[in-house]
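Rotation project, supervised by the postdoc (A.L.). Task for the rotation student: set up a whole-complex structure prediction and record inputs and outputs verbatim in this book. Inputs entered:
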Amino acid sequence: MINIAVAQSGGPTCAINASLVGVFKESLKVPKIDAIFGSINGIEGIIDNHLVDMKSMILTNADIELLRQTPSTVLGSCRYKLPDWREDEEVYKKIVDTFKQRNIGAFFYIGGNDSMDTVNKLSEYVYEQGLDVKIIGIPKTIDNDLCITDHTPGFGSAAKYVATTMHEITRDSIVYSIPSVTIVEIMGRHAGWLTASSAVLHAMGETAPHLVYVPEIKFSLERFLADVRQEMSKHKAVIVAVSEGIEVPEGVQSGVVDNFGHKYLSGIGKYLEEIVRNEIGCKVRSVELNVMQRCSSHVGSKTDIDEAEAIGAAGVRCALEGNTGKVMVFKRVSDTPYTVVIDTAAANEIANNEKPLPRKYINSAGNNIRDFAIDYFMPLIQGDLQLVTEHGIPKHFAIHESVLK
Amino acid sequence: MINIAVAQSGGPTCAINASLVGVFKESLKVPKIDAIFGSINGIEGIIDNHLVDMKSMILTNADIELLRQTPSTVLGSCRYKLPDWREDEEVYKKIVDTFKQRNIGAFFYIGGNDSMDTVNKLSEYVYEQGLDVKIIGIPKTIDNDLCITDHTPGFGSAAKYVATTMHEITRDSIVYSIPSVTIVEIMGRHAGWLTASSAVLHAMGETAPHLVYVPEIKFSLERFLADVRQEMSKHKAVIVAVSEGIEVPEGVQSGVVDNFGHKYLSGIGKYLEEIVRNEIGCKVRSVELNVMQRCSSHVGSKTDIDEAEAIGAAGVRCALEGNTGKVMVFKRVSDTPYTVVIDTAAANEIANNEKPLPRKYINSAGNNIRDFAIDYFMPLIQGDLQLVTEHGIPKHFAIHESVLK
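Outputs recorded:
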């Protein structure tokens, strides 16, 4: 008999608890697995031996269903990066102490780039120590920027939120008789996947978003203003999708100073709003989709949540087959009908790398997304969740906040 | 035979097209009503004789269903305030010209405070001219601040969005091991109804929102900071709901200067975020629900949309009974079971007045909402819409943007 441990790391998504459910349900099926421990606040819970017994936390099928539809990370999260174990072994010794004391035979880490670095380093260290603990990574990030995998759990739900909301903002923006510009700021510091996904609206016959700016294309304020003027000559209400991570003059995004020399309090959307107001002088509004784009599980993608659960479960089977230092990945077999299979990749191939939006998805002017790229995004946002509600609002599963302290 | 005209005015909501559907469907039933004209951009369309034939725009029951679930105002909107007709008759003459030329026997104006002022003035003028055109107001506003009516169409859907989203933001905010404050800025320049509605989460066992600030209570920065410190001693992640309209030191909200003497680019949420960062020094984030709170029909309240349609239809019956200068209102018969009837009020009693959140709904400290007030809000957010979707996203009804130009 062995016990297993599972943890969640990095920024919240709508799908990260579904992957936890996948690990949990698959582990329940395995006779040789006894306790299922949840590590509080990612790897920090393993370091500090702060674990919860998930079988005493999740008692019923109804609990499982609620957890599956709950956004964010029920076990808390962290932004902890392990040092190189060849240089600093101290924290690794604590981890190994926990593994031994709790009789952990496998550890599943649900997270993004940084978490896969943890999977990589920890699997190496444990192997060097001759300890039989399988370390498996389960991907997640709304940024969709992990290498090798076709896409990441959490991205589909975020993309569905972005497309649904951009559609509604489009309706909202066109009501008055005067011309206007609406700038929607979307998450993605280094990769434009989520911003690009807003272009699925084109498949619904919408002309919006009229302009799309992603970090993969060098940003020019002059070009931006020319683009906006050009679109204003064609449309009364121009909708612009912009990644938070596009590069603008130094200091603007750092929170230090804006280009007027003042302390700058906001993001790129507010910055471009001011530019348009000053240079074009039309009605302009900026909208930051903020944390809603990563936590709006009320509009989650069924495809995404189902896949997130499936890839968590596959991680358990992968460990039981004797693998370690692996990350579970999706391989897309076809767009239509949409077919994916789950495979594995070496953690060191995924850790610390980023997959940018392909240049071929972006038009030659660098200011919108090509139609054929929509075939990539479209399957990921399909299907609605049948949500359990209370008082008209989707219910959530939560462990008491005192446990998270 | 008469024709009728209908227009939409003020800020968009999720329910304003449902009221249009109510007017349209009820009018179709009436043999003496021939053409149903939609006025483009509110009263401006009447002034400029810019009308569309709605029967040639809405062709099928499927069109009606789509329009019903489409947020914002399909006919465009305006912020036009009529002058006193005793002082300036010119624009009234244009309106009367349109009424006569189009053989309009009744005009339905869907809008908020300002629109009810239009209903009031226009009904007086038309009556003075001896013209038989019935002028009826159909209420709408997410602010819920119209007098006499128990609540306004559009408010329930906005409240459902706010509660659902605050619930998700609560999950999102608690993941890291360090203490944090999240400030959610909610619409409402003069009335705190929508901000207060976030307190329905308390009925779901949530401690969030831990603090609620509305314009009805004089705001004090010192009290605010003391409140936040107090809540931080009890909760790891403190969630604050704040109305955009609370009064803070002069200039902050005017967009002129912040209290550091700099040009201030953002709203109250960002302002309070900076205050907390500077004075308390903890992790802090502000979230502006922005236009999403008024246009997120994907999470609309079925109660709200059904009522919006019903009150539009009732407006047509009211006009046919010979009334003019009236506004349709809801009267609540009971909370449980939730029962409302539709009645009328004189437009001059509703125009230019605002109904604040009652003091009794607010706790004695002035920083949260009392439990019994939840009985008022709860029925308004009940029920989900069965949305028609395309490519996984709710479909919308839209007239070509060239018509709106």
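Student's summary: Chain A has a mean pLDDT of 94.
Supervisor addendum: The domain at 155-295 of chain A is CATH 3.40.50.460 (Rossmann fold).
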